[in-house]
Amino acid sequence: MPEDQMPEALAAASSSLADLPRLVAPAPDPATIDWPDTVTVTHVAHWTDRLFSFRTTRPRSLRFRSGEFVMIGLMGEPDPQTGKRRPLLRAYSIASPDWDDELEFYSIKVQDGPLTSRLQHIRPGDEIILKPKPVGTLVHDALLPGKRLWFFATGTGIAPYASLIREPQTYHDYDQVILTHTCREVAELEYGRRLVDEVRRDEVLAELIGEGFADKLLYYPTTTREESPRMGRITTLLEDGTVFRDLGIEGGLSRETDRAMVCGSLPFNLDMKAFLEGHGLREGANSEPAEYVVEKAFVG
Fold first, then answer.
1. How crowded is the C-beta side of 295, counted as CA atoms within 13 Å?
2. What mean pLDDT do residues 168-173 have?
3. Residue 138: which of 156, 161, 169, 112 has the closest Cα?
4. Backbone phi, then psi, for 17, in 5-degree steps?
5. Mean pLDDT value across the chain
6. What is the mean pLDDT of residues 87-98?
7. Of 39, 151, 180, 267, which has the fewest CB atoms closer than 10 Å, so is most exposed?
8. Coil, strand or helix: which one is 4?
9. Are the beta carbons of 276 and 246 closer than 8 angstroms?
């Protein structure tokens, strides 16, 4: 072909190619991507204007120890500059026991919170992100053998204990299990109160553990603002001996018999650490079990 005709031929070829179907699909819209590691919401319960719980499907591959937590969340809004969306993830204790077919979570509502401002509006059928890598220190493996197990919680810090009081090992390992839960108002105790009632009447657990297992479980709720049958910060009630008198426990805590788990607000966790260590209990971990453990990754 003469050189003077080559530019016209190339232009014609380019025009023809432009009319052909694209062989490479355009980049997908981030909003339509089927993101991995999602579970489906099966039930939602709103306990107060600040608290709600929800259940989801459980991936068949997910294995965890009762008391552990996972990262869950939703996709964030598109970045104004790039249009990309990133997941908003937070640590949530799994409130269901390791034998449950579904997963349960208990959450606070924060109206301007990046995640919970949206998470509180989920409904059955919605999907949320779940990263299937459970971790945590509120597990039986992190404690040395003992006779009495204390679960100390404030607010949504009761979530890991909702798992552990439905765990048969809890009652096989201990003669007595004491769940304390401190909230500001009476309504905020309802999740825990109903949970304990259901555990005590659970025929499946009675079959797994044995009749009379529920007699080992003691529930000690307190409020700090609204009037209730039992008021005061649990740390104060421990320090002045009220808890021990109420429960008929002589001599207070003992390193030989008592084990404890702590989950709540940061000030509460620090106060409980000081109290427990003042009675000779040492902090344990998965790698080095001792007499008490604190969940550092979750503050509720």
1. 32
2. 96
3. 161
4. -65, -35
5. 88
6. 94
7. 267
8. helix
9. no
